[in-house]
What we know:
mainly alpha; 4 strands; binds zinc ion
Amino acid sequence: MTTKTPCQQCGVNIEFDVEQANQFVACPSCSQQTRLLLSRPKPSAPDPKIKSEAKRAGRDGDSVIASILACFGLVDILFGIMGGAFIIYDRRDFPLGVAIIAAGLLAGCVLLGFASLIEHTKASAERLRRIELVLARP
Length: 138
Ligand SMILES: [Zn+2]
């Protein structure tokens, strides 16, 4: 039974008998020493191209912006509730307090929404790019 292995020097496929596995031979193409491996080396480290592309898709920048927005959103909600509660309690101005709470919640939700939108867009852009890369490969 024969199988194939890529030359470790030039990558050309070398056909050999499985009984010769793990022997070192001279590659017929580049004539350098290469080992006859039975199974191709595990799909080692992800394609560096894909890796760098994924990185370029903006993991760093966009994630930071999304996190900051999310933080602002939470702080907004917190301050809205606290401020509103304080005004209701301290000034007995119920409508104003409720308005402040509502405004805080609204602004906070908008910020959180933006944050998740950024994350979503980023994730799908990354996925698209990966698919493109896989399709573009020979
Ligand atoms: Zn070779």
